[in-house]
Structures are given as structure tokens and as C-alpha cells.
Design goal:
This protein is mainly alpha-helical and 374 residues long. It contains 15 helices and 6 strands. Strands 1-2 form a two-stranded antiparallel ribbon. A two-stranded parallel sheet has the order 3-6. Strand 4 and strand 5 form a beta hairpin. The radius of gyration is 22 Å and the shape is globular. It starts with a helix and ends with a helix. The relative contact order is 0.15.
Length: 374
């Protein structure tokens, strides 16, 4: 019995054993880099930088890669989540939040969102390019990951994927990697803690739209999930697993979401998915306070649409400082997240999102009225 079990290890057991070794031995890889290796690394860094200009260029790069390599499911998950990041960025210059937040607060929020969006791309996109080159050369080149400052955790996962083609494990591993990578660099960063997370915790979690991840599909339909504890890396990883289920465990939904993404280029404006409510051009009169316009995600008769600008009109490109060095991986037990719970996830989010928009409109209108009276 014991003999049969010891030789009946699952691929996940193999990953766990490999990570245990790396964890206990302070594993360090060292390879002799050939001239070809060095040129490839330089090319990967250059191509990544070209696409890492802003949220729109990143989001497009994710989708373009997925359309050529659909086995890399995170590329589409990352594309859809990155769309939401862009909408959150332009919200800061849109109809509601310009009335609720000062310019300094808007800028702090934007720097926080942009830094996270930029960091994830410069970590994950080189992995995609290295995988692409591995396919081209018909051999795994993942020993180069450490020279791109990619976690040893992902080196183990990519070698596993190359051998086993387990798309679920790769995608969830990338979720784990990116959220763990962000933890100290953004979420635990003292500046963002002070200027964003501590200051706006109530607003972030209770009545701003930042915690809704929306997946548009078909003609104006929405699915998604809501995150209630952004500061928890555990909750962010579990959210990623739920979003995976919404996207990839229903083939009809996936097909509809991909077709929607292909036919609606990301601009950062919420007009992308709900043009009946949002416009990237201001329709109202400057300084004019409108009555309540929204009811059950529909505009009242004769009401103007809400302003939601394109990203290019809301924010200038930011020159980012170099990413902080260091490998987040220090506990092999993180592999437990790779177990597929296989529970069905209800992606219903429309009603909750509609209520959030209604609360935002009321809050913005009240703030505008108070400012006028003052």
C-alpha cells in the first residue's frame, strides 16, 4: 500500500516537493549565460518596457498575447482585471470622484493604482515572452527567469507547465505570484499605507466602485466578483481563484467575454461597456447641479450621461522608478492555493454594481450641494 502511494504522486505533489527543497536550502540558481541568453534577456526587457507605458498599452498587450497563446489563461484574466484598473484610474477624473476627492487625493490614488498595474506587468510579461521564445526554440528557457527578477516559485511552476500543460495550476500560480509580489512593494508600502489604504479604507470597501471587478460580455451584460478586504493577500488570491472560475469554467461565457474584448478596444472609459450611462465627453453644463439621474442602472428620461474620460485624457504617462528587488517566496505551503476547489461561482454582480453607482451619485450630489452652500 505504501509503495503504491509513494509512486502515485500527483503533479501537485511534485511541485510541493520541489518548493520544499528550494525553501529549506535557500535555493540559488546560477547559470553560465551565453551571448544568445544575454541578447534574449535584453530583448525581453525592451519589449516589456515598450508595452508598459500605461494601462491601455498593458491591457492590449495581455489580450494580444492570449489570442495567440490561449493556453496561458492568466493573460486573458489579467487583461480583464487590467481593464478594471483602467476604469478605476479614470473614475478619479470622472463624474463622481472629482466631487468627492481633492486633487491631491486623486493623485495619490492614481499613483497607487498605476504603480501596482506597472509592477505586475513588468513581472508577468517577461514570463510570457520567455515562454514564447521557449516554444520557438522547442526547449524550456526558464532558467533565465531569475535574471529577470522573477520568483523561484514561478521557475518551478513554468517547468511543471512545460511538462504537464496544466493550465489551471499555471494560471492560479500566476495569481499567487502577482499578489504576493505586490504585497510588500505596494500594499505594505508605508507611503501607500498612509496616503491611500489607511485614509480611504472605508470608502474603498464600502461605497466606492474600486472593489468591483467587472467582466463585460455580449451586449451590455456584466459578470464579476467583489473584493471586501483589499489589504489581505489571502483575500486577493481567493478573489483571483473565483474570477478564474467565472471566466474559464463556462465555455459559453468565456467565448462571449473574449468576443466582447476583441470588439471593444480598451480606452479606460466606462463607456466601453455601458455607453447608455457613460460618455467620454462631458454632456452637462459646467457648475450645474443636476437632480438624481440614475435609477436601476438606467438614466431617467432626459438625463445626461455621466462623464467617464478616456485614460489618455485623464492622466499623463508616468516614469516609474525601478522595481524593488527581492523574492517574495519564503513558504512552500503557498502551494495549497493551487488545489482546485471546483465549486461553482455565481458571477452575478450587476445589481450590486448598480447600487454602488446609485450611492456614488447621491454622495457626489450631496457633496456638491454642501460645497455650494458653503
Amino acid at each position: 500500500m505504501f509503495f503504491a502511494r509513494s509512486h502515485g504522486k500527483t503533479p501537485l505533489d511534485g511541485i510541493r516537493d520541489e518548493l520544499k527543497k528550494k525553501n529549506s536550502n535557500n535555493f540559488v540558481t546560477s547559470h553560465h549565460l551565453t551571448l544568445s541568453d544575454r541578447r534574449l534577456l535584453e530583448k525581453i526587457r525592451g519589449v516589456t518596457a515598450e508595452h508598459n507605458l500605461n494601462n491601455v498599452t498593458r491591457t492590449k498587450a495581455y489580450l494580444d498575447f492570449y489570442l495567440h497563446h490561449s493556453e496561458i489563461q492568466w493573460a486573458f484574466l489579467g487583461h480583464m482585471v487590467s481593464r478594471n484598473g483602467g476604469w478605476n484610474m479614470t473614475d478619479l477624473k470622472g463624474e463622481f470622484l472629482t466631487r468627492l476627492l481633492s486633487k491631491k487625493e486623486q493623485n495619490s490614488f492614481y499613483k497607487f493604482l498605476e504603480r501596482g498595474n506597472w509592477l505586475i506587468f513588468q513581472d508577468v510579461y517577461p514570463q510570457f515572452l520567455l515562454y514564447k521564445e521557449s516554444l520557438k526554440q522547442n526547449k524550456p528557457l526558464f532558467y533565465l527567469l531569475s535574471y529577470l527578477n522573477i520568483s523561484t516559485f514561478m521557475e518551478t511552476i513554468w517547468y511543471h507547465f512545460w511538462k504537464n500543460q496544466d493550465t489551471y495550476i499555471l494560471c492560479i500560480a500566476l495569481v499567487i505570484n502577482e499578489q504576493s509580489y505586490l504585497e510588500k512593494r505596494v500594499v505594505q508600502n508605508p507611503v501607500y499605507q498612509k496616503e491611500v489604504l489607511n485614509k480611504f479604507e472605508f470608502m474603498l470597501q464600502d461605497w466606492l466602485s474600486f472593489n468591483h471587478i467587472l467582466f463585460p460580455y455580449d451586449d451590455g451584460e456584466l459578470a464579476g466578483q467583489t473584493l471586501h478586504h483589499f489589504e489581505s493577500v489571502n483575500e486577493r488570491i481567493l478573489l483571483g481563484k473565483r474570477l478564474y472560475s467565472v471566466l474559464f469554467k463556462n465555455n459559453d461565457f468565456l467565448k462571449g467575454a473574449v468576443e466582447w474584448a476583441k470588439s471593444h478596444p480598451h480606452t479606460g472609459s466606462r463607456k466601453d461597456y455601458w455607453p447608455h450611462l457613460f460618455n467620454n465627453i462631458k454632456e452637462g453644463l459646467p457648475g450645474f447641479t443636476y437632480p438624481i439621474r440614475l435609477k436601476a442602472c438606467q438614466l431617467r428620461k432626459g438625463a445626461k450621461r455621466f462623464y467617464s474620460p478616456k485614460l489618455e485624457n485623464a492622466w499623463k504617462n508616468v516614469s516609474q522608478r525601478e522595481a524593488e528587488k527581492g523574492d517574495w517566496f519564503d513558504d512552500w505551503r503557498i502551494v495549497d492555493y493551487l488545489v482546485d476547489g471546483d465549486e461553482p461561482i455565481d458571477g452575478e454582480i450587476r445589481n450590486e454594481y448598480c447600487k454602488t453607482l446609485e450611492r456614488l451619485e447621491v454622495a457626489a450630489l450631496a457633496k456638491k450641494t454642501i460645497n455650494f452652500l458653503e
